[in-house]
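Table S5 (text form). Sequence records supplied for joint modeling of the two-component complex.
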Amino acid sequence: MPTISGALAQVCTKIEATFPFTRLSSCLRRDLDPMTGTAKTYSVIPVGTIDERSDSNQEFRRLYLKLDVHQRINEAGGDTEEAIIEDNCLSYIETLLDPDFWRIPGTTLHLVEYPSMSISDLTRVGNVVSFSVTVALAIAP
Amino acid sequence: MGAIMDALIVEARDGVPTIPSSTRGAERGVRIGEELATSELPHLFVHSPAETIELLDFQQERRTFVCTLDLWADATQEVVAGYLDAIRDQIAANRTLGGLVDYSTVSARQIFEFAGKDRRVGRLEVTAVEDV
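The corresponding structure-token record, covering 273 residues in total, follows.
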């Protein structure tokens, strides 16, 4: 049976193949990795559960993901917050909110909760703009 | 720090055009105000710069700069208060100090007076913040 950690690795491979994001060394601490220049990074907070179908002995593992994306505003290079949000973030968000992005060919993952975000998921600390997308994937046995 | 203090001198000169030119009217550092010649008044000292650094996510820094502006003048309390108003308004109109910082503000003002003396000093504390 595919594992939750294996599913997470498949998702990260898809993210890195699609976006110019570098994965942070920690998904929980935001002070461990520096962001300089025009850095774009991401981290994934994964949580797993297991369902057991009532009509069978099949176990369905489920992977809940909170994907955090971070971009630095390079003020010295002429970047502005408005440009970063409107030119970059919205384009990334559009891709990440498309359910098809999470249907990854060659895997047994399928969507059980559509990707979503709320207004408070877009934030800025210092010169780094961040947003989060949450999604839940089931891993077919 | 030096560039910010130089920018504050420019703002103060714009606010109080009667400050004499060059270091006869404004300088970084401080001397004994009572010993200033009348021709050097109103005289501005920009001194005692300090900076504190707050750590932000992703190893960024929020640098908060504070320095003191002392404006000496042989003038009435009302006139010195007017000078302080003019400098404050000048900084408020150019809070980034020409792009040097995210914003700056006059965070404290006081006029020091000495019994039996016409010479007064108006003090402004300026705070500037820059995320790096």
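Note: Chain A has a mean pLDDT of 91.
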